[in-house]
């Protein structure tokens, strides 16, 4: 029999997006980097062959440099009202978005009133539709001038970030209750300063560590600034936490524990300055003989990006986060699935596991699916399709709700009927 999927009253059912991935026409450290790296990324895309089950379908896009240039993205900057209407059609009651720092402060110390007003209107349009705004202050993209100063790698640069947060506090204090300071600082420092995949492509454990510490400090300061302007605000951070299993034997088990411990250790650094924890759940990792694989023994399903699909796994980080004694909001969870073959199953199984975690005493307040629409997936570009809503890039960015999204809408409808 179908498990009863009734969620607590006032549960947030929503979706997430981020400025750089959808807005279009940005000018930030990513857009600069994309222009320099698009050819390299296209030429080096062959490695995907071993990862993605849909290589034949995506090969052409993956080998096309244009795929790696965000350009006008989904043109959300101009079409956001349409996107909000679609979110409403899906019965969503919340939307997580991010403010683009490079729009608000394109030149150091000079705030752009037009951009500030844009987000005022944007938030008003969300509120008009009863979509609770979850505002992320920083989702990875940086103004070019800030990157040129060394960005978050330098302690002395934190003051630029806090000045920006002050501005946001002054401007949006009456409009925003839910603030998310930073998106996945640990993933950002890994990809930008350790693995060297993202701008500024460094390989340095020291820079990794110091940048992570600077982001921690930035979060703490941002938290205090937001509280100064809006004492009733609810402020959190979004971090990526995986679920883990391991092969037999002591070494495998210890390695698994170490990985899991480290992820939580990073969150502990923010904990005194958190009203809620934002969980981004994507990965299941299986540890076996010094190998970290994304493929669990008990699943053979992978997404278009070759990521393990293990929706049940979300129960494990949720239960671990209980130790922090803070409410949890799932700020991201989703999969690249262009043909929409797995998404319905994935969402249903995820929500079943979230419900199980709530029944086990975890204070989960919401689930925001990644993503509302297809978008620009960083160094993978446009071909991975994470959207509840398909974007036809070749046909005037036509938006079409995917079948799986209707199932999500139905679960939301059902839970509200049950109350
Ligand atoms: C990021 C998103 C990204 C998603 C899928 C998350 O870690 O916050 O920006 O698109 O993963 O890769």
Description:
- It is a single chain.
- This protein is of the alpha/beta class and 419 residues long.
- The protein has a single domain, classed as Glycosidases (TIM Barrel), CATH 3.20.20.
- It is built from 14 helices and 13 strands.
- The strands form three sheets. It has an eight-stranded parallel β-barrel, surrounded by five helices. A three-stranded mixed beta sheet has the order 6-8-9. Strands 12-13 form a two-stranded antiparallel sheet.
- A hairpin with a 2-residue loop joins β8 and β9.
- α8 packs parallel to α10.
- The longest helix is centred in the middle third of the chain and has 25 residues.
- The model has no long low-confidence stretch (mean pLDDT 95).
